[in-house]
């Protein structure tokens, strides 16, 4: 008996080994592109041949890559393995992939990087290694054989050390991306072996490492982008003694926190980099009031920077911000200045006078009012300015705005759109050389001789205009969309017109003679939004009978009423939803375990996507072990009806996670997902639903037709997102526990 039992066990084990490789990807058959993503695969499917050039295995459960898995795929150009559970790669797994150009191993569980993996990837150009669990890059360079590499993405929250020699063999890169938010040890000179990099992105928190990296990259990188650092710069120079010429031309700070002291020191140190021409600060915060050390800045000499962009700068006490007195000597070589969405309400007159070389100024989406604009553009201010953008501010008087701008003698381009002027005077004073004027969305009801006759381009779209009777002899481009015009402008008024946009007006037709009267017209954007080179209308279109017209109007009205009723009461939707419900009712309430591909399907409003995609997804998908989440934006099948996508995703998910907020209950798509979840998930004996409250919300705020959801909120516990950081760890622990249950 025991012998028979032993033989049975051996045969069973042998049989199971033979059956395992039969798990395959059906879309791989006889095609060059093999898409096996999000199929719940536990290993690389067998049977790959030399015909396959692209293999997508992303978002599966693969844990290991064996030497024989890819042995026959000798013509593979792209291999996508991101977002799996890979922790082990045999050293010669990629040995036969000499033609591979793209390899993505990001967001896996790799605890180390082996040079042997990449030893035969001579054609590799793009390598993604970010989001794993390695703490360093090894004692030597893992990339020494990758002579054709052009893009390298590496790092993760656990990366702590970068050593000299880690980048040996890499000489030229287009993009280098390093996630080093917890990098604590950087050996100076580690990045010096790379001779030329076009764009480097570094996520850092350690300011000493920031300085060391800048010193190494001064002579190799063209554009350096630094993210997520609280900048506290040491006084030590960023420039080392070297005979090499500087290469750094552009420096970008994104999501960086500054203080007055760090900005003062940064300005001084950056002057030593004589090649630096452009500075950007995007989504940054300044913890200060502009109390910069202007004496030290002044003693350090002039700046070589020509372009400065500040986008969405958050200044807590912006209304107390200093006027930057003492900075006058630092701005005279600046040529382009952009400060948008940063709550700027004025520029001090004395400072504005010293922008002697500035030709481009963009201050759109700020808090400028007419009184402050008059101080910002005082006499002799901005003497060389040619282009000015003041759109989306709080200007109310076109007369005062024009008077202020008339002090700019060289101004050619002016954008004052999206200011609520509401009225237009008969006469305005403008710069003599003004050629391009944007007055769109300014609520002006008519046109007067306030519009300068020197213009070559005029945009007065989205106003309340009923006619155009203004003579502009030099005008070449005219934009009149979204007004109430019933006829084309008279050709004698604009004899040199080349381009005309008049879509979305009350114009129904125009004659051949009207069109041909524009002798120089090349582009007409008219009734249907098409570009018209010549107008040819049929007799039927020109001479419809009254009876046909009436019938068409009546049919149109009937259709319009039916469409409106259907839209108001979601008739088409609910017909399709009912059909989907009838099909879903035939299926078992719980899918078999083998069909479960995700730990949770996430239902959320697009307005909450920043929290979901950048905070929750990162926390859960980079957990150890990671959770597999299904997101509509990423995982829905393109071209498939969205209801089928929702149903299939819920059935293939162990849980359904609802991120509730005020945006959620107002979202039509979220309501539709709840419609389906009514009969599929919200059974009182079914715990497949997890509710996360992103913000306080009353159950009464949920639409009344979701009575079961309201009842569940009153009878079952749910998770609330805490604003306090010390409570967030408990929240994540509870959420992970709920997903595992």
UniProtKB/TrEMBL annotation:
It is a single-pass type I membrane protein. Pfam families: LRR_8, TIR. Residues 1-18 form the signal peptide. SMART domains: LRR_BAC, LRR_TYP, TIR. SUPFAM superfamilies: L domain-like (SSF52058), Toll/Interleukin receptor TIR domain (SSF52200). Keywords: Disulfide bond, Glycoprotein, Immunity, Inflammatory response, Innate immunity, Leucine-rich repeat, Membrane, Receptor, Repeat, Signal, Transmembrane, Transmembrane helix. It comes from the Eukaryota. Its main location: membrane. Residues 596-739 form the TIR domain. The chain crosses the membrane at residues 546-567. Disulfide bonds join 28-34, 349-378, 428-450. It is found in: Membrane. PROSITE patterns: LRR, TIR. Belongs to the Toll-like receptor family. This is TLR21 protein. It comes from Chunga burmeisteri (Black-legged seriema).
């Amino acid at each position: 008996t025991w012998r028979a039992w032993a033989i049975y066990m051996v045969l069973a084990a042998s049989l199971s080994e033979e059956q395992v490789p039969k798990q395959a990807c059906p879309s791989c058959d006889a095609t060059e592109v093999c898409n096996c993503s999000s199929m719940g695969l536990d290993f690389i499917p067998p049977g790959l041949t030399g015909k396959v050039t692209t293999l997508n295995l992303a978002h599966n459960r693969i844990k290991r890559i064996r030497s024989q898995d890819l042995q026959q795929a000798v013509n593979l150009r792209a291999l996508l393995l991101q977002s799996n559970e890979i922790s082990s790669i045999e050293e010669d797994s990629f040995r036969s992939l000499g033609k591979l150009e793209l390899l993505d191993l990001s967001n896996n569980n790799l605890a180390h990087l082996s040079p042997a993996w990449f030893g035969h990837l001579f054609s590799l150009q793009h390598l993604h290694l970010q989001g794993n669990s390695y703490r360093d890059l090894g004692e030597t360079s893992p990339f020494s054989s990758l002579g054709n590499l052009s893009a390298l993405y590496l790092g993760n929250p656990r990366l702590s050390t970068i050593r000299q020699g880690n980048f040996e063999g890499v000489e030229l890169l287009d993009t280098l991306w390093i996630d080093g938010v917890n990098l604590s040890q950087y050996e100076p000179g580690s990045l010096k072996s790379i001779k030329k990099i076009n764009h480097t992105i570094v996520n850092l928190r350690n300011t000493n490492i920031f300085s060391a990296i800048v010193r190494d990259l001064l002579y190799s990188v063209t554009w350096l982008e630094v993210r997520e650092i609280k900048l506290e710069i040491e006084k030590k120079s960023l420039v080392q003694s070297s005979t090499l010429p500087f290469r750094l031309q552009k420096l970008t700070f994104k999501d960086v926190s500054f203080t007055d002291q760090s900005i003062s020191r940064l300005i001084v140190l950056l002057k030593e980099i004589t090649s630096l021409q452009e500075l950007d600060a995007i989504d940054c915060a300044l913890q200060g009031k502009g109390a910069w050390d202007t004496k030290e800045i002044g003693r350090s000499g002039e700046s070589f920077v020509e372009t400065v962009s500040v986008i969405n700068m958050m200044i807590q006490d912006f209304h107390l911000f200093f006027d930057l007195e003492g900075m006058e000597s630092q701005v005279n070589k600046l040529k382009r200045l952009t400060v948008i969405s940063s709550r700027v309400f004025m520029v001090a007159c004395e400072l504005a006078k010293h922008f002697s070389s500035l030709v481009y100024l963009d201050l759109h989406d700020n808090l400028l009012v007419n009184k402050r604009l008059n101080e910002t553009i005082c006499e002799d201010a901005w003497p060389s300015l040619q282009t000015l953008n003041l759109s989306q501010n709080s200007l109310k008087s076109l007369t005062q705005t024009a008077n202020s701008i008339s002090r700019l003698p060289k101004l050619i381009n002016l954008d004052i759109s999206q200011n609520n002027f509401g009225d237009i005077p008969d006469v305005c004073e403008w710069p003599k050389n003004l050629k391009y004027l944007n007055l769109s969305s300014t609520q002006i009801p008519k046109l007067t001789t306030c519009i300068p006759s020197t213009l070559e381009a005029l945009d007065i779209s989205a106003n309340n205009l009923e006619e155009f009777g203004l003579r502009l002899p030099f005008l070449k481009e005219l934009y009149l969309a979204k007004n109430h015009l019933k006829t084309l402008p008279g050709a004698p008024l604009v004899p040199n017109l080349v381009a005309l946009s008049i879509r979305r007006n009350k114009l129904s037709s125009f004659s051949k003679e009207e069109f041909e009267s524009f002798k120089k017209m090349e582009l007409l954007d008219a009734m249907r939004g098409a570009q018209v080179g010549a107008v040819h209308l049929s007799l039927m279109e020109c001479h419809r009978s009254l009876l046909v017209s009436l019938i068409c109007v009546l049919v149109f009205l009937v259709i319009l009423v039916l469409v409106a009723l259907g839209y108001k009461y979601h008739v088409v939707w609910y017909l399709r939803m009912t059909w989907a419900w009838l099909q879903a009712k035939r299926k078992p309430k719980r899918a078999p375990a083998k069909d479960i591909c995700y730990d949770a399907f996430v239902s959320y409003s697009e307005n909450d996507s920043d929290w979901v995609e950048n905070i929750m997804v990162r926390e859960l998908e980079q957990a150890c072990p990671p959770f597999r989440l299904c997101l509509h934006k990423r995982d829905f099948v393109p071209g498939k009806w969205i209801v089928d996508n929702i149903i299939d995703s819920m059935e293939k998910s162990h849980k359904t996670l609802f991120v509730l907020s005020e945006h959620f209950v107002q979202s039509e798509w979220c309501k539709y997902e709840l419609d389906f979840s009514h009969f599929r998930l919200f059974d009182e004996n079914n715990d497949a639903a997890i509710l996360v409250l992103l913000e306080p919300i009353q159950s009464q705020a949920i639409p009344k037709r979701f009575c079961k959801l309201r009842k569940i909120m009153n009878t079952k516990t749910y998770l609330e997102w805490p604003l306090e950081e010390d409570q967030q760890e408990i929240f994540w622990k509870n959420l992970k526990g709920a997903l595992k249950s």
